[in-house]
TrEMBL record:
It comes from Seminavis robusta. GO terms for biological process: glycolytic process. It is an enzyme of class 5 (isomerase). GO terms for molecular function: phosphoglycerate mutase activity. Its EC number is 5.4.2.11. PROSITE patterns: PG_MUTASE (PS00175). Belongs to the phosphoglycerate mutase family. BPG-dependent PGAM subfamily. This is Phosphoglycerate mutase. Substrate binds at residues 37-44, 50-51, 89, 116-119, 127, 143-144, 211-212. It comes from the Eukaryota.
Length: 283
């Protein structure tokens, strides 16, 4: 009763082969990319402009990113390689996420090009005091306009990258600051040169970075225009999952919060509250 004729078996196995080909084709057509902004830092907590200042995670930040790692593990997403900045809040975030998802062994590349946007002479200032001094509109221009940079620092400032050994060998302007546009000018080349080849090679890539370096990257990925990007705030410690097609265009994900096409993992109400929290740092 269980005997199948030769032709039935070969028909069945050909159908199975076809199915597995379709499945592997679909898998080959899709590339998973994981983005995560670092957890809350001590200067986020103190509401200070941070930029390239190298502050650690706050106790809450450590917890946020441990949870991010558990969410990734639960979702079964396993990065093959990770990239992060030269700043400890992003590096530590990556370590926690990899530890929680049992992937501490994967290769990690660190690059200043993934750093937060340099906040020039605003670094270290209290955000609310800066609003009180310069007005809400001016501060919003510095925080969220596309190409108006904050005031610069020169080489006499401890915030100038020439005074920090980790940037030795790189050249920065005497009068230094960054807008989102100039941040994008270093994030996107790094993406194209160091990350795209890995994705095309079939790797699942994770990037642990910063609010504004990730805003620059998603502007590029999602093709967000300059006025819409000024409204976008990225929550701390929340995995953002993209599925990219073979041309590395995002495949819109169910539950994505516009204008992003990737989806955040976790409690969506809590995520929206975190997004509002970033926005409201300067009321
Ligand atoms: O201070 C900073 O470096 C960034 C991120 O924390 O702040 P903002 O969201 O104001 O650009």
């Amino acid at each position: 009763m269980f005997a199948l004729s030769r032709s039935t078996v070969s028909l069945a196995s050909r159908a199975a082969l076809r199915r597995s080909f379709v499945v592997s084709q679909q898998a080959a057509d899709k590339h998973t990319l994981v983005l995560v902004r670092h957890g809350e830092s001590t200067w986020n907590l103190e509401n200070k402009f941070t930029g390239w200042y190298d502050c650690p995670l706050s106790p809450k930040g450590h917890e946020e990113v441990k949870e991010a790692g558990q969410l990734l593990k639960k979702e079964g997403i396993k990065p093959d390689i990770a990239h992060t900045s030269l700043l400890q809040r992003a590096i530590r975030t990556l370590w926690h996420v990899l530890e929680q998802s049992e992937l501490m062994w994967i290769p990690v590349q660190k690059a200043w090009q993934l750093n937060e946007r340099h906040y020039g002479a605003l670094q270290g200032l209290d955000k609310q005091e800066t609003v009180d001094k310069f007005g809400k509109d001016q501060v919003l221009v510095w925080r969220r306009s596309y190409d108006v940079p904050p005031p610069t620092v020169d080489r006499s400032s401890p915030h100038h990258p020439d005074n920090d050994p980790r940037y030795a060998g790189f050249e920065f302007a005497d009068e230094f600051t960054e807008s989102l546009a100039t941040t994008l000018d270093r994030v996107v080349p790094y993406w194209n040169e160091s990350i795209v080849p890995q994705i095309k090679d079939g790797k699942t890539v994770m990037i642990a970075a910063h609010g504004n370096s990730l805003r620059a990257l998603v502007k590029h990925l999602d093709g967000i225009d300059e006025s819409t990007i000024s409204e976008l705030n990225i929550p701390t410690g929340t995995p953002l999952i993209y599925e990219l097609d073979d041309n590395l265009k995002p495949i819109p994900q169910e539950g994505a919060i516009a204008p992003l096409q990737g989806r955040y993992l976790g409690d969506q109400d809590a995520i929206r509250a975190r997004i509002e929290g970033v926005k409201n740092q300067t009321k």
